[in-house]
């Protein structure tokens, strides 16, 4: 008498189901990775704006008694790392298309009494710092 063993194997449906689950997890992983990277860039923007803000308040204003009309290069605020003037997409504060902006107000002969620093964020509202004097 012959004994036949059952062959154990996956059916096409089981394989497709497993591939589908793996595909969904891969998509979710990459979507979450994109969100985490955007949040990291936003945190870098906040760090840069805060550094510029404190350099303007504690460095520039304390030394000169006014704020600059514009920031054309990193030499305007030598107290901070020059790399902070470059946003996460690689554009400098003083170049067009930057996520950062500096707008001076109430100026007379290049000496300003107020300013607004702003970073355009990806995952949250724009980050804005204004002069405190």
Structure characteristics:
rod-shaped; single chain; alpha+beta; four-stranded antiparallel sheet; about 130 residues; 4 strands
Topology:
Elements: H1 12-64, E1 67-68, E2 100-108, E3 111-119, E4 127-130
Antiparallel strand pairs: 1-3, 2-3, 3-4
Describe the structure.
The model has no long low-confidence stretch (mean pLDDT 91). Strands 1, 2, 3 and 4 form a 4-stranded antiparallel beta sheet that branches. The protein has one helix at 12-64, and strands spanning 67-68, 100-108, 111-119, 127-130. The protein has one domain (12-130). The protein is rod-shaped, with a radius of gyration of 27 Å. With 133 residues, the protein is an alpha+beta fold. It contains 1 helix and 4 strands, in the order H-E-E-E-E.
Q: What number is the mean pLDDT?
A: 91
Taken as a percent bin, the fraction of beta residues is 15-25%
Number of separate domains: 1
Q: What would you report as the Rg, rounded to the nearest angstrom?
A: 27 Å
Largest sheet: 4 strands, antiparallel
> What best-fitting shape do the alpha-carbon axes yield?
rod-shaped
- Weakly predicted, low-confidence segments: none
* Helix-strand category: alpha+beta
Q: How many helices does DSSP assign? A: 1
- What distance lies between the first and last C-alpha atoms, to the nearest angstrom? 100 Å
N-to-C order of helices and strands: HEEEE
Share of helical residues: 25-40%
What kind of assembly state do the chains in view correspond to?
single chain
The count of strands amounts to 4
